[in-house]
Amino acid sequence: MAWDIVLIVNEQKFVKKYSFIYTLIISIILLAPLYIYIDHKIKLHEIKTEVELKSIQSHIINAMDIFGNHPNETFEFPKFTQYKSGIYKKDFSRIYTQIKEPLPSFMNGYHSDGSNRYLITKLPSEKYFFAEYLITEKKISFAPIYLEASIVAFGIIALILLLSFYFLNSFSRPFKRVNEKLDDFIKESMHEINTPLSIINVNVDLFSSIYGANKYFNRIKSATKSLATIYNDMDYLIKQNRIEYQDEPINLNAFLRDRVTYFELICELKDIVISFDCSVKVEILFNRTKLERIVDNTLSNAIKFSNTNSKINVTLKKDTDDIKLSIQDYGQGIKNPHMILKKHYRENEHKNGFGIGMSIVKSIIDESDITLDIHSELAKGSTFIYTFHNPMILSSETI
To answer: Where, by residue number, does the polypeptide cross the bilayer (predicted)?
Structure first.
């Protein structure tokens, strides 16, 4: 077996993940002053605009003062490229104006309306063409401020991200070396475990064929099968997120008969009778390794928690458009059925196992079109019912 795995930490994922996290945190800290700076620049821009409008009004008033009171002459109202002005009566009716937009207010002072800024100033009564108010308008834009802020913010974020990536990548190198060593260790260990298991099984079968089977060899064979189940769980956990398991057509009847036969010897050591009853012939589209983990872990638990001289019933039947696989034991029952699928949960601390088998089952059914119902009663036993839904069923025929 040759795998490319990382047991503890995927350093690339680690670096990318925490680079973005650190960048986000530090950016928030550094961008807060930038926000204050932008707000300050906007206020300064408003003050500058108000000063400019006052300056324009001063220029207009000065021009009207110079013109004086000459009713027979025409006064040329000052015009400016970026500014519009007008003089109004007391009721704000127009005497003369370049302003086309409706006024946002009729009160003295500086006013804003969208991108327009207005300065309304009360004039001395009837001094300037019987006008009461002088109003000046200018359109303003904060785009340059926002553009400057965006460039600064982008620069800050890019710099932080690059520095975070660089430093975290440097810090992750020791993890990478440790991971590589652990990776090699696990691969070699799994290989070393699998090899003696195979040797034991082959030699027990060979010895039994020559000298006949006996209870001691049956115990050895049963123990190696239990160990093989644990090995297969470990193998699946290691490969789970690193390889893609392909679905294939599976004859569910033949598959279940094979697994029941596999566990028969283990059942015999506890005088447990395991039976398989099916009323339907089914072919499903699923991954064989995943299906094996579901069935093996459920049967293994059923055997483990069954009483001596009891039985286990494996049933396959059709339910409308779905297929139901039921594995029923008559053992101790489960105190907390809702907890049995949690990782490392063990119903009985004195029983062997790591509490990972059923959590593997849960991870598989969660990503598949399979549902699980658990019915259990203390001292009477448990039933695990797996429902294979119609989309994954290729064919089904009542027997």
So the answer is: 20-38, 145-168
